[in-house]
Specification:
Blueprint: H1 2-6, H2 10-19, H3 24-42, E1 45-48, H4 50-65, E2 77-81, H5 108-115, E3 119-124, H6 158-165, E4 171-176, H7 182-188, E5 191-194, E6 214-219, H8 222-232, H9 250-253, E7 262-266, H10 276-291, E8 295-299, H11 307-322, H12 341-352, H13 355-368, H14 373-394, E9 400-404, H15 420-424, H16 431-435, E10 440-447, E11 453-459, H17 465-477
Parallel strand pairs: 2-3, 2-4, 7-8, 7-9
Antiparallel strand pairs: 1-3, 4-6, 5-6, 5-10, 9-11, 10-11
Helix pairs in contact: 3-4, 6-7, 11-13, 11-14
The chain binds glutamine.
Length: 488
Amino acid sequence: MATDLIWQSATALSALLEKGEVTSRDLTEAFIARAQAVEPSVHAYLDLHTDYALEQADQADQRRQLGQVRGPLDGIPVSLKNVISIKDLPLTAASKMLEPFVSPYDATTTLKLKNAGAVLLGRLNMDEFAMGSSCENSAFGPTFNPWDTERIPGGSSGGSAACVAAGETPLSLGSDTGGSIRQPASLCGIVGMKPTYGLVSRYGLAAFASSLDQIGPMAHTVEDAALLLQTIAGYDPLDSTSFNTSIPDYRAALQEAPKKWRLGVPTEFFGEGLDPEVKEAVQRAIQWYEAQGCEIVEISLPHNELSVPVYYVLAPAEASSNLARYDGVRYGHRSSEAKDAIDLYFKSRGEGFGPEVKRRILLGTYVLSSGYYDAYYLRAQKVRTLIRNDYLKAFEQVDAILTPTSPTAAFKLGEKKDDPLSMYLADIYTISVNLAGLPGLSMPCGFTQDKLPIGLQVIGQPFKESELFQIAHAYEQAHDWKTTHPNL
Ligand code: GLN
């Protein structure tokens, strides 16, 4: 019974709850048992709050008995990346710098999940402050890929992806600044979606690069991702970059018949550096769309090759400013060795931050410093506009764009850890989507010969999440990649 439950979609579990075939307590216990069984080999969680979760499950069951069900997520277990605040629970962003910190309030996304009746199980591992592509930058040890535990799960939302892929929760939230939802989703064989910038509130999300960060859903199916996005999307006056737009019914849109979409394939995304097995799987997916009557249009995104250098100017610049708040005085780690106030800043930050975070702060401070600002920061902003314009031009011809999510399947732990440049290139297909503020989704499209998942990225037009989900759902319905699970 329990093994039947852990691989079900949230939508299917919700139907079981509705029919009275299971209770939220049954579900929550099944997922906790699964987590306890596989965590020693996966390490997706930083903190699993079993009593807290069971209490919420019992409340959901009570509501159901009283006929006060709050919607399809009521009673469904969900876990969150440890960068999204839950009131009264510790928030670390996988950093020693924040270790003693307890959130005084809920993030807006957390509050929306609570209001929807979701059962929050705990918080997931990640690269420190969401900086990384492998989860190896966590101060609390890496997460392992459920498909091959000698390999990385991707990052920075590696814990969120591994948690869903290992059957530890049907849904999780991640955050994506340059690919952190889509790349680990791809490497762990699940669906991961970064919404249009401004669709989901960032209030209560520990900031990395504020002009790029978005929270988004991770799930087994496109429909589940749509359900989770439905719950967390919407205008929030507490986030000044939140966009005031009406939120369509994403799941209802999935009931519409598939259309003959015009789909762009950027030549620049299929060149050097792309693993042949990944290329073949993605091309097969593109051919499938063509066979359904979609028009495949070759397009060009000429500035994409500049997206990694542009990102590594802008994201560190914003990070150096955002992370200035960790001064050892107001919250988080405080050095016990300091002689005076300045020494306290230096020592607290020196002891609290890990090497990748320090590298980003140094880079960011450098590109913002007087004399270098125009040459680096301002220039990068201009190229960012060119990157966005490439996409907007492409969207005059096409409805959406198909690309690989990651140039390779999951790599081995340690393989790129000491080579930042090759690690940074893991996001070559995802970063420009953040720079342009667009929605992007990764879904499984095959396996390598070593049985490692491969992801297809679908990039959509701003605020056209419904269409993005429809395009992805059509492919997913015709393929059964999601019926294979890792052998743990
Ligand atoms: N891997 C990229 C980085 O290290 C993106 C991270 C993210 O999206 N949070 O910055």
